[in-house]
Amino acid sequence: MPGSRKHIPVEETVGLIMEGDRGALGRAITLIESSRPDHQETAHNILDSCLPSPTRSLRIGITGPPGTGKSTLIESLGLEILKNPDNRIAILAIDPSSERSGGSILGDKARMEKLASRKEVYIRPSPSSGYLGGTSPKTHEAILLCEAAGYNVIIVETVGVGQSEIGIASMVDYILLLVLPGSGDELQGIKRGIMEIADGIAVTKIDEAEQKSVHFARAACESSLKLLQKKYPGWEPRVMLTSAMAGNGIEELWRNIRFFTDTLKKSGDFEKNRQEQRIRLLRAETDRQLVQAFHNKETVRSLYPIVASAVEKGNISPFSGAKQLVDTVIRNPR
Fold first, then answer.
1. Residue 42, number of CB atoms within 10 A of its CB
2. Angle 277-281-283 (CA atoms, 0-180°, nearest 5)?
3. Potential cystine with 111: which of 24, 54, 71, 85 (Cβ 3.0-4.6 Å)?
C-alpha cells in the first residue's frame, strides 16, 4: 500500500492483473497516482510489463458541462454495452479536486449502482488533482492497466468544467459531448474547444424538457458542427437525442459508437489516432517530468525563495526571475 515501505512484487502483480484480479488492478492504479518516487518506479515497471497485452479495446470519453447527467448516461450506456456477454467495462470517473484541500468527492460509483453490482464492470473514481485537462494526470496509465486486466470497453468520465476538457482527446478513441435541451446559446462559448473534438453529441434529459427546447438544442449543435473543420475525413458527427432514465436513444448511441469504430478502422485513422496520442502523451509526460525534476533540484530549492522575494517586491520581473532560475540549472546541472 502507498503508506508502507513494503516491497511490491512486480511480476506477481502483473500476473494478477492479467488474470483480472480487481485488487491488484486497484493497487497498481493507486501506485500510478502516487507522487512518491518509489511508488512511481514500481508502477511504471508494472505498466511496462503489462504493455504487451493483446487486448484490443475501445476507449470512450464522456464530457460536457455539469448537470448534463454524465454518470446516469454512462450507467444506461454501460447496461446496453453489456448486452453482449463478451464485453467487460472499466469506468474511470474523474472527480474535481478541491484547490484548497486537494480532496475530491469521488461519488460516481454510488451514482452507478446497477453497473457497480456487475462483475463485468470495474469502476475507479480518481481525483483530478487540479489537472486542467478534465481528466487525472494518470488517466492514460490507468487505461492501459485496465486493458491489461481484460476490459475491452474503457469509459472515461471527465470532470465537466468547460473548454479545458480537450485533454481527453489524447486518451480516447470516441468523444461524446453531452448538452442539455435549451443550451443552444451556450454552445457559442464552447464550440471551438469541446465541439471540435467531439465525435458525437447527445442532447440529454429529453424526457424532462419541452420538445421546443430539445429541437432548438439539436439544431444549434448541428449548425455549429457545420462551421467546424472535420476531425476525420470519413466521419460526420451526429447529434442524438437521449434520455438515460427512460432509455431513449441509448441503443442508437451505442450503434453510432460502433459504426464510428468500424469506419475509422477501415480508413486506418483509428490506429493512426492511437499512434499520434502516444506521441502527444510522450511530450506531455516529458514536460511534466522536467518540471518536477527542475523543482526538486537543490539549487532551485535554495535559490527560489530569494528570487520569489525579489519578484514579490517588484525588484525584478517574473520573466527575469524565471530566467535566472533556469539559467542557474543549465549552468550548474548537478
1. 20
2. 120
3. 71
Instruction: With beta carbons less than 8 A apart as the criterion, state whether 176 and 77 touch.
Output: no
Show the DSSP H helices in the chain as ranges: 10-18, 22-33, 37-50, 70-81, 108-111, 113-116, 139-148, 187-190, 211-226, 250-267, 269-296, 298-312, 318-331
| Rounded Cα–Cα distance for residues 282 and 130 (Å) | 20
180 to 50, 68, 183, 228: CA distances (angstroms): 39, 6, 6, 21
Among candidates 161, 156, 204, 198, which has minimal Cα distance to 179? 204
Query: How far is residue 77's CA from residue 200's CA, in Å, rounded to a whole number?
Result: 14
**Cell 427546447 sits at which residue?**
213
Placement of cell 443552444 in the chain: 184
pLDDT in tens, 118-130: 999 999 987 644 4
* Structure confidence by residue, pLDDT tens digits, 255-312: 999 999 999 999 999 999 999 998 988 898 898 889 888 998 999 999 999 999 999 9
**17 and 148 Cβ atoms separated by less than 8 Å:** yes
